[in-house]
């Protein structure tokens, strides 16, 4: 039987994506799936679908802070709400697009951990360079590659593909054409992969 793949559309600016990123590797391993980390631009998906960030709705925004803290406690992972929020995560995404597929997850984890636990302003090139260097990449080379057309084109293509497939928010996962939106849907994703949701 061919191994199934979880496609993980991520944008480092999304706190629920950070939470999901702390869990997804273990989930994929438990289910015997491969994992494909696919950077995309959440803001563009919002624009394309007429959706908007939940924090823009005051009551939802207030609840969201509490919800995120509860999830972090539930998972036993750190979460620090960054001073710069929302943040421009375009270069972080382009770096993800400049890397070979098998290294994208390491970058995604590094950049989200820096932003969501250490208050690193990931809109800044020198901050990204430091995060990349600390994660064992060549930060200067990655920043240069992120400015090249192939990385820009891939991020745009990923975003367009995501929107075409129905993505309106983050984190979003696909197993084939089956889509799951939200960190809180990881349980459904796992049940689905374990064949528990068959009609
Ligand atoms: N309940 C979801 C919330 C996820 C969420 O609010 N994600 C934001 C980005 S951080 C989003 O895509 N919002 C779109 C929406 O609320 O429609 C979860 O647990 O992950």
Automatic annotation (TrEMBL):
Keywords: Isomerase. The keyword DNA damage does not apply. The keyword Isomerase applies. It catalyses: 2-hydroxychromene-2-carboxylate = (3E)-4-(2-hydroxyphenyl)-2-oxobut-3-enoate. The active site is at 14 (nucleophile). GO terms for molecular function: 2-hydroxychromene-2-carboxylate isomerase activity; glutathione peroxidase activity; glutathione transferase activity. GO terms for biological process: glutathione metabolic process; naphthalene catabolic process. Residues 5-193 form the DSBA-like thioredoxin domain. It holds the Pfam family DSBA. Its EC number is 5.99.1.4. InterPro entries: DSBA-like_thioredoxin_dom (IPR001853), GST_Kappa/NadH (IPR051924), HCCAis_GSTk (IPR014440), NahD-like (IPR044087), Thioredoxin-like_sf (IPR036249). PANTHER family: GLUTATHIONE S-TRANSFERASE KAPPA, GLUTATHIONE S-TRANSFERASE KAPPA 1. Belongs to the GST superfamily. NadH family. This is 2-hydroxychromene-2-carboxylate isomerase. It comes from Solimonas fluminis. The lineage of its organism: Bacteria, Pseudomonadati, Pseudomonadota, Gammaproteobacteria, Nevskiales.
């Amino acid at each position: 039987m061919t191994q199934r793949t979880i496609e993980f559309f991520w944008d480092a600016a999304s706190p629920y994506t950070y939470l999901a990123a702390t869990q997804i590797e273990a989930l994929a391993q438990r289910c015997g799936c491969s994992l494909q980390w696919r950077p995309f631009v959440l803001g563009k998906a919002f624009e394309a679908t007429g959706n908007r960030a939940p924090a823009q709705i005051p009551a939802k925004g207030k609840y969201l802070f509490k919800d995120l803290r509860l999830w972090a406690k539930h998972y036993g992972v750190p979460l620090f709400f960054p001073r710069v929020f929302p943040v421009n995560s375009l270069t972080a995404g382009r770096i993800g697009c400049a890397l070979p597929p098998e290294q994208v997850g390491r970058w995604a984890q590094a950049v989200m951990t820096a932003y969501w636990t250490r208050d690193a302003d990931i809109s800044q090139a020198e901050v990204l360079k430091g995060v990349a260097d600390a994660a064992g990449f060549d930060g200067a080379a990655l920043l240069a590659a992120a400015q090249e057309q192939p990385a820009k084109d891939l991020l745009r293509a990923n975003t367009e593909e995501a929107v075409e497939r129905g993505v309106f928010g983050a984190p979003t996962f696909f197993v084939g054409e089956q889509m799951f939106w939200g960190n809180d849907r990881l349980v459904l994703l796992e049940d689905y992969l374990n064949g528990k949701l068959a009609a």
